[in-house]
Design goal:
The chain is mainly alpha-helical. It has six helices and no strands. The two termini are 22 Å apart.
């Protein structure tokens, strides 16, 4: 599982890195030479979609979505677990159809390409759809592990290990 999570983190980070490099390089060559990198805008848009879906996968697994924990904090361990399970169930109900619909979008892309270089959009959409699928799978895995007290935390250890280790 750690290898999968490491791969997901790397793909999301690389997408963001390439976005930053493309944007900075395009600005530099536009001011220095008066031209721009072909498809830099389309490319950064596609890479942002990829980074978002892979990032959603990580946020889902670690349970680090933006949340208001006022109610959650008022409950004991069992109540917190129930809230976490319900929240994860809602996330699964959202992510599974989302992943399906992104794959439908990939299938309906046809021969569409980027504006300048005519790079097939199917490549970018497929990478994003794979990220959406990983997000759905990790959400289901979290949903299975939560009732057993083995949910992942943002610190790289599950809650059961943290309770045993005293952290």
């Amino acid at each position: 599982m750690r290898r999968l999570l490491s791969t997901v983190e790397t793909l999301a980070a690389l997408s963001l890195l390439v976005i930053a490099l493309l944007t900075a390089t395009n600005v530099a060559v536009r001011y220095a030479f008066g031209w721009q990198i072909p498809d830099w805008f389309d490319g950064t848009q596609m890479l942002l979609g990829i980074a978002m879906f892979w990032g959603i996968a990580l946020a889902t697994w670690y349970g680090t979505h933006i949340a208001v924990d006022l109610l959650w904090e008022a409950f004991g361990a069992r109540g917190k677990r129930v809230i976490d399970v319900l929240a994860t169930l809602i996330t699964v109900v959202f992510l599974v159809p989302l992943a399906w619909m992104v794959w439908v979008k990939v299938g309906g892309t046809g021969n569409q390409g980027t504006m300048d270089l005519r790079l097939p959009l199917k490549w970018f959409y497929s990478a994003a759809a794979l990220g959406a699928t990983v997000a759905a799978v990790l959400a289901v895995a979290r949903l299975v592990l939560l009732p057993m007290g083995r949910a992942a935390s943002a610190h790289g250890q599950d809650e059961a290990e943290g309770a045993v280790n005293g952290s």
